[in-house]
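Researcher: Quick sanity check before group meeting.
Model: Go ahead. Protein one:
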Amino acid sequence: MKVGDIIEICTTGNLGALTAVKFFNRLIKKTGGLRGVVVADHGNSVSALFGENVIIVSKKHARVLDNRAKEGENRV
C-alpha cells in the first residue's frame, strides 16, 4: 500500500472472539462504510482518510481497491 491508494475495510473469514467482532463493528461504524484514501504508511498499518476522519488501520484489515499511487499516474 502506498499513499494515494483507495482502500476499504475487510474482515477476515474467521473472526474468532466476540472482542474481534466488536472491534470490526466499531471500525466499520467509524468509517461509515466509506472507502478511504491512504495518507500515510506506518509499516504494519496505514493512516487513511474516510470522509473527514483519519483512522489508523492495520494492513491486515485493509484491501486495496484502486491503486492510484502507481508510478506515472500522478503526473499532471
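Researcher: Fine. The other one?
Model: Protein two, sequence then structure:
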Amino acid sequence: KTIYRYFFDNLSMIPDEKTYLVIDVAEDAPVGILQEAFVAEYAKPGVKFVIRGSPWKILNIHNDKIYVRSEDDPTGAIPSWVGEEIPVPMEVALEVGKVKARVEEGMLEGQTAREIAVRLSEDYPARAETIERAISEIVEHVEKGLPVPTDGRVVVEDWDENVIIHANFGTLVNRTLARLVGHIISEETGYPVGVQQETYTIVTQTVGEVDASYVVSLLRNLADTDLDAIMKDAVTKTGMFKRRLINVARKAGALSKYANFSNITLGRLMKSFEGTCIFEEAMKDTTRKDLDIEATMKLLRKMGNGEIEVMRMETGGEISPLAKVVIDGMRMKSDIVPPDKITRIIIESARARILNETRVLACLGRRDHMDTYRIKELPEKVECPRCGSTELGVFDRSIEEVSKERAKERPGRKREGEPWWERGKAMAKLVSMYGRRGAIVAAAKRVDMTEAWDLLAETEGETNEFFDRIVEGERNALKRRFI
C-alpha cells in the first residue's frame, strides 16, 4: 500500500505546492491566497508584499494562514506573483556593463549622446534613435558627475533607508551576492535584513551602522574570508533552499504532501535533514538552478585584488538616475492600484463573472420545466415558459442531478434533500420576488440568505452598489468558511 501511494504521489514531475490563506487582522477577513513557493522564499514577519493591488505587511504565520495588515508605503513590497524568473546570463550583463563604459568614456571625451549612439549602432543590431533613448539615463548620470557602474566597476550608493549596489553581473550572480551580503549584514548586526535584486542592481535595507561605505568595505574584503563556509550557511537560510528541501523530501517519501509548514516547523525540518542525502540534494538543486556560486566567488576575488573596482557614489542624498530607473521598475512590478480603482475593478470583475455563470433553473410550481441558462440572458421577470410560475429554483448542478433530486420530492411530504438542493429551493423565493436580480444573487458564491434578502431590499437595479453588496456577501461567506 505504501509503495503504491508513493508511486502515484510522485508520478508528476511538477512539485506539489500548498496554498496559504492571507488574512487581514484589522477586518478579520481573507485577502487572498499565496503559493508555497512565494511563502518559502519571502514570507517572514515584517516583509511587505503586494496582493489584490495593495501592499500588505506580514505580522505572523500560523500553519496555513498568514496574518497581515494593510500598508500605505509600497516601497520594497514584493509582488505576490513573483516566481522563477528567466535569468539574464552573466555574460549578457557584463556586455551591458561594457556598453555603459563606452557611453561614459564618450561623454567624458566630449561626444554627444547622438554621436555615441551612432557608434554603438555600428556594433549592435539596433537603430541609433533606439540606442539614444536606451542610454539616456547613463548620459544623465555622467552629466551629474557620477561614476557609472561598468563591467569593471561596482558602484554603491545610499538612498533613503536602503543601500543600492550597482553590479552588472546578471540574475544568478546578483541573486547569490544579494543573499550573501544580506546574510553577513544580518549576522554582524543581529537584525534581519531585506534584500531585493535585479539583473544589474541589488537593493538592501540599512540597519544599525550599515551604509554604502560599510558595503564597499564588505565587498572588498569578502575574498579574504572562508567563502565556502559563509556561502553554504547563507544558502541554507534562503527561502529558495527551504522550498527545494521540501520538494526533495516529498519526492524521497520522507515528507507527506499534505504537511503544514510555518517558519518554526521549517527550521526543525532543516535540522532533522542535516547531513542526509536529502539535504545535500536540495543544496545541489539550489546552487545549480537558483544561484551561481562559482561565478560569484570568482568576481568577489576580482573585487578583492582590485581587478574590479568597488567604490562609493556620493549623491548628496538624492537618488542617482540609474538607481531611479531600478526603484521605478520595482514599483511598477509591485503594480499598486489606487483604492478607488481597486473597488471599480472588483465590482466590474464580479459583474462579469456572475453574469457569465450558467445555472439550472427548475420550476417548483407544476414541476414541468427545467433548463440551463446563462444569467445575463435571463429577462427582468423570470418565469416558467410552460406554466408561468415565478417560483424557479436556481441550482449549480447538472440537469441530470437536479432532475434526480426533484424526482424524490413528493407533494405534501417534508423531506430534507442535499444541501445544494435545499439552497437552490430557497433561492426560488428570491427569484419569485426580484426576478433576474434574485437569480444574480443566487449565482453568487455562497451569499447568506439573510444577506441576500437584505441587499435585494436595500438596492435597486443592477447598479455598482448592488454588485458591491454581493461582493461583500461573498467575502463574508469566505470568512465564515475559513475562520
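Researcher: One line on it for the slide.
Model: The chain has 20 helices and 14 strands.
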